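Dear colleague,

Thank you for sharing your sequence with our group. We've completed the structure prediction you requested, and as agreed, I am returning the results in plain text so they can be pasted directly into your records. Please verify that the sequence below matches your submission; if there's any discrepancy, let me know and we will rerun it promptly.
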Amino acid sequence: MTDVRIGGRWVGDGHPVFITAEVGSNHDQDLGKALRLIDAAAEAGVDAVKFQTFRASSHYSRRTPGFTYLDGQDTYALIESLELDRSWQPRLLEHAAGHGIEFFSSPCDVDALLELDALGVPTHKVASFDLPDTGLVGAMARTGKPIVMSTGMATWMDIQLALDAMAAEGNDQAILLQCTSLYPAPAPLANLRAMASMRSAFGTLVGYSDHTLGDQVCIAAVALGACFIEKHFTLDRSAPGPDHPFAMEPAELTAMVRRIRDVEAALGDGRKAGPRPEEREMAEKGRRSLHAAVDIAAGTVIEDGMLVVKRPGLGITPSLRPHVVGRHAAREIERDEWITWDALQ
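Please find the predicted structure tokens below.
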């Protein structure tokens, strides 16, 4: 398992979570809206925006049945209405770069892949629906760039065959994303523990592509080790179109990014090495130590009944009480005084 570089960012253990705003088809074939989506995503603090590059003619058969969640709309006509104008892509990339974030896409055919790669996108994304297309995966791998793979609906064999297609091209830069291919996806089907299973089984970096409502599942994914988060994004959840209703609006995306950064900071380094510098006062004043229960004259042999455990913790720690009993007082120790080693002999 190795870190990968996406544009100017390292992604993997020990690096900040890479957060992608999935614009998908929520541009509604409006270049101005696509640019505003990039503006809003950058303002929210994400690392990248992602689009989807496909043509209905090479993406779906005209005979495809309607999807239930789309109320039986004609699938081909709908997909055709969601196509991204590929002539926009240079401008979208340039606009994202101007905001200091990355632009990439899910190329759904080899022509789209070649066009995006020629633009210099930093990574390629395999959509869950396209994971079994090992020819497309292999073509992505030949670019030598990291490949982000969503694994919604996938079996272990689907994932292994996709990784094999990458390996055949000498590319091991994979990030596997747990995903549930429902729109929206119920939280009980998120199966975040699959990230750990994939990491163990395939030795790859892992992350999460989210279709649930809200941000709590994304935040939980970060706590469970996701190094990459993808979340659908819109300017207006009430807009018509299949991906708007379950996507985040700008204020929500901003809040999610902030919470993810808080959670990853809170995970810490895992070491238990005593109080941090910021806790020093609490350790000294709030912890317990040995105190004198009575006035103790100089030269007195310390007995157990002469000791009491109290705060502050400026004296000898209570666990060393057996090593204090039986020693002599080197000086007078007043009642309620915390006992230090220089008061003993």
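Summary note from our side: The chain has a mean pLDDT of 97.

Kind regards,
the structure core
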